[in-house]
Amino acid sequence: MITPMVPAQRRSVLISGASIAGPALAFWLDHYGFDVTVVERAPTIRTGGYPIDVRGTAIDVVERMGLLPQIRAAHIASRAMTFVDRASMVIGSVPIYEAICSDTERDVELPRGTLTTLLHDATRNGNIDYCFNDSIDTLRDDGKGVDIGFASGRQARYDIVIGADGLHSRTRRLVFGPEAPFNHSLGFCFNLFSMPNDKGLSHGGVVHAEPGRTAAIWAVQDSPRVFGFLAFATDEAPVSTSRDAEEQIRRMRAAFAGMGWEVPRLLDAMAQADDLYFDSVSQIRMPHWSKGRVALVGDAAFAPSFRSGQGTSLALVGAYVLAGELATRDDPQDAFAAYERIARPFVEANQALATDDNGAFFLPRTQKDIETRDHILAEIIRNGTAGMFDNTKARVHNSLRLSDYASV
């Protein structure tokens, strides 16, 4: 049981976003005695069940929060990713942990909604005020505080404002300007959606790829529903991706026309899904994560893209460091500078996981990429995974040693 700490003078903090970084930050700020408000435009916590990972240093964060036992209990234990040709013939497969995680003791895979629920449950019974169905509309930082106008019409003033509102952060746009200079495309657009598990898929995924086009189906344990995934290569600017679902469905049908395997069924399921999520595969890279009394955390500041596998972990670690530095420094700008100094090397090393090998194994752009992948799969069939995957990722995942702010 963590005993809350109360500073000599309570400071008010508004956090925009109630996904992962927002509630994690709220947890620690409440622990340090801040008055915390979380505003979220959705009507409740979003509980989508697609798998995410808590890895490396982030394991230390959730352990300090007292949540590690529940998170370990939710581990879904995916087994293998199988690659097939257009006729569904198996090319090869890789064990999930050897290919993606590299460190079974420091990695937990769980449904995203389970983690968001755990974080919300850990914060909603404290002094934290959650305001759903609302969002920041206007923001004015006068150097002594931040005046906020909410979409609901409410007005309020806070000592500090934190944007934890994702890849397309409105807080970032209000304070730093348009998204385009910060959003760096990794060359793909993707759609993610759920569909019936009518093929009996269990504890893993099946992938079919052609040059510049990848389709996959992923099962969380033995769930009656699976996740469909479609991604295609594109050179267009990531922020030009339309937010209109019907246009995205038309684009995907055009991009995947004539592709074999289960793609026609995936396209039909995509069009019928009520949980369709689409976006560009991109990263947020900013020269600074704060300005005045406003700072960013999680995807709003440093989205690494799903190709890194580290979005959730960076959000948790960033929230821990940001809260700790705010608790130890009277001037928020000093705290923001320390937060960035500590977290940036870790963030950039983990972002590089998505770009160093260009992700060609899972998202091949060329026929040569596919041939290289198939050669690796053939080597696994002949010799197993020994020596095929090094521990570089595990080292990067664990490369930040957390400061102990317990004495604050």
Automatic annotation (TrEMBL):
Residues 12-350 form the FAD-binding domain. Gene3D superfamilies: D-Amino Acid Oxidase, subunit A, domain 2 (3.30.9.10), FAD/NAD(P)-binding domain (3.50.50.60). This is FAD-dependent oxidoreductase. It comes from the Bacteria. Pfam families: FAD_binding_3. Keywords: Plasmid. GO terms for molecular function: FAD binding. The keyword Chloroplast does not apply. The keyword Ubl conjugation does not apply. The lineage of its organism: Bacteria, Pseudomonadati, Pseudomonadota, Alphaproteobacteria, Acetobacterales.
